[in-house]
Amino acid sequence: MSTAIDNDHMRAALALARRGLGQTWPNPSVGCVIVKDNRVVARATTAIGGRPHAETQALDIAGRAARRATAYVSLEPCAHHGRTPPCAEALIQAGIARVVIATHDPDPRVAGRGVAMLREAGVTVTENVLRADGEEINEGFFRRVTQGRPMVTLKLASTLDGRIATASGQSKWITSPAARRLVQLLRARHDAVLVGSGTALTDDPELTCRLEGARTRPLVRIVADSQLRTSLSSRLAQTASTDPLWLIAANGVDHARLIDLQELGAEILTVPRAEHGLDAAVMLAALGTRGLTRVLVEGGGKLAASLLSADLVDRLVWFHAPATLGGDALPAIQAMGIPDLALMPRFQRVALREIGPDIVSEFRRA
Q1: Any bridge partners for residue 68, and if so which?
Q2: In 10 A of CB 29, how many CB atoms?
Q3: The dihedral of CA 125, 128, 133, 139: what is its sign?
Q4: Rounded distance between C-alpha atoms, residue 204 and residue 235, angstroms
Q5: Which helix (H) or strand (E) holds 249?
Q6: Angle at 68 between CA 64 and CA 70, to 5 degrees
Q7: What is the pLDDT of residues 173-215, one digit of tens each?
């Protein structure tokens, strides 16, 4: 059984894990707090790029104080040998007496084996402390492990009537500077940002995280670009040598153009061609194979519709500006061809707040 003190220390471990979101893929972001005699002797989170793990870093900080201490870990310690020995083994060798975990790791190489290894060595293990919070933080990693794709957050910014641009394409800016700053925070907490080729061509975005100090690891910028239409002179292409740029193209694209984009630093991921360009599920599977766990989708309407139609949106963040544009303006979500209300994608609202003059609503799949 956990105690109020256990909950307090686990909240600290979970807060540490949140700090690393977006920067530890393909590994999860884990927080670890080591406590001895009611005193915190070490805190650590997974390092940028996924190694070293939080537990080994915390043990290094604690040193000899780790013996007979309690370790609070936001995710079950790993039990397999990779580039480093298992964290469960490191906790045992350090003399940790008790380990408190928020949630189990579904990775087949772990999946309860970390807990079993600890218990076999005589370590007391308390499980499922603030489990829901642990699962929420690790949703991206869990989806990659269990479904082979990253968690998808769809961000939309529109008028009250769901429009993102005038009929002529004018779109800057519908929402306020305060809302746009929050978008930068969303980028900071994801591994990558994804847009469709139409958005890339129309807006010529850079898609970097401009929140100072929020990231150490560069944000991966991705364009769903079945025909490799991304301009060689675009800001995305011209910065590909310094900030990662991945272009997802259909098999059989022009080889010379592919080479030109690669020479600028872009990585080209080719997938089988679908009837209307790219299959959303296949595209996300390709990103999962590359290790991504959390992807923020920022447009446009065609890409949003394809992901929603395929039930691939896990979280939805919708900014509404207090304005209207009317039916001739461009919609945030293009046609989905839904013939029956029972087939609508449904979401559960989990947050609603004001951001400057705008309102942002956050949803999760129902």
Answers
A1: none
A2: 28
A3: positive
A4: 6
A5: strand 245-250
A6: 105
A7: 899 999 999 999 999 999 999 999 999 999 999 999 998 888 9
**Bridging pattern class, strands 358-365 and 245-250:** unpaired
Each residue of 5-18: b (16+ CB within 10 Å) or e? Answer: ebeebbbbbbbbbe
Cβ–Cβ < 8 Å for 122, 93: no
Alpha carbon 292 to its chain centroid, in Å, reads: 8
Sign of the CA dihedral 306, 308, 314, 320? positive
Tell me whether residue 274 is exposed, middle or buried, using C-beta atoms within 10 angstroms of its C-beta: 0 to 12, 13 to 18, 19 or more. middle
55 belongs to the catalytic site: yes
d(CA 324, CA 158): 9
Place of tokens 């991966």: 220
Expressed in angstroms, the distance from the first to the final Cα of the chain is 31
Q: Phi/psi at 110 (nearest 5 deg)?
A: -120, -85
Give CA–CA dist 197/204, Å, rounded: 10
105: left (phi over 0), alpha (psi -120 to 50) or beta: beta
The answer to whether residues 162 and 332 touch, using CB atoms and an 8 Å cutoff, is yes
Q: How far apart are CA 29 and CA 142, in angstroms?
A: 11
Q: What is the CA radius of gyration of the chain?
A: 22
Tokens of 86: 């298992």
pLDDT in tens, 334-357: 999 999 999 999 999 999 999 999
Catalytic site residue from 55, 76, 89, 139: 55
357 Cβ partners below 8 Å, 6+ apart? Answer: 176, 178, 321, 322
Q: Both tokens of residue 38?
A: 């009611």
pTM: 0.95
Residue 179: C-alpha distances to residues 87, 161, 210 (Å): 40, 18, 14
Q: Give the H or E element holding residue 34.
A: strand 31-36
| Cα separation, 178 vs 191, whole angstroms | 22
Contact between residue 274 and residue 282 where contact means Cβ atoms under 8 Å apart: yes
Q: Maximum Cα–Cα distance for the chain, whole Å?
A: 69
> What's 102's DSSP letter?
S
Give the three-class secondary structure for 343.
Answer: helix
